[in-house]
Fold this protein.
Amino acid sequence: MEFKNVVKGQLTQSLLKTLMERVGYRVTRLGVEELFGEIKYLDLKQYLALGLPLNLRFLPDLLVAEPDMQKVSLVEVKFRREFGEQSIDSLYLDLKKQREHWPDSYAIIMIATPFVKGGRFHQDCIRVVWPNMTEYLNRSGEHNKRQVRMPSGVDVMLEKSCEDTWNSLPTLNISFPQFERVSDGFANADLITSTIKDLAKL
């Protein structure tokens, strides 16, 4: 794994962990890189030669528990410079593979270049892919179509734009309601957007 990707991965996980703990969630880092840190320094050939079980290779990054410990969620954290076609395709392939082994896991996507010009709120830079929403990222799938009425009055199906796909994904506070229960939950989340944007400089 490239060093800069290791750094970005560690930083985005730390950002999210700190943010979720701030509003009361209990968060434990998982992921094969966390459990077996030495693999971060292996090249792909060496990594594959280890023969790690697939469910370990695709283990999500975080275990997030509700403050009352009544519910836990496995959460994968993904950072992308932008949410363009190439990013959507890579996210879809990554999450599809992971969810073959961890079908109930969530994914939190952080992007450095929001669609909202000058976007400074967490909902501009963070979205969640619920366990049943993997296909929302399949650009050739049915979720990637929208019906549009043409000037002639005929309805046609067009491919969604990247922004449409982004906007179809739930926000952090909808997915993790503790953000709404804590008085400064939104403010804390909004504070991290500048750091997310700075990750694009790496």
Remarks:
- The chain has one domain: 3-135+161-201.
- The chain has a mean pLDDT of 90.
- The CA atoms of residues 128 and 170 lie 5 Å apart.
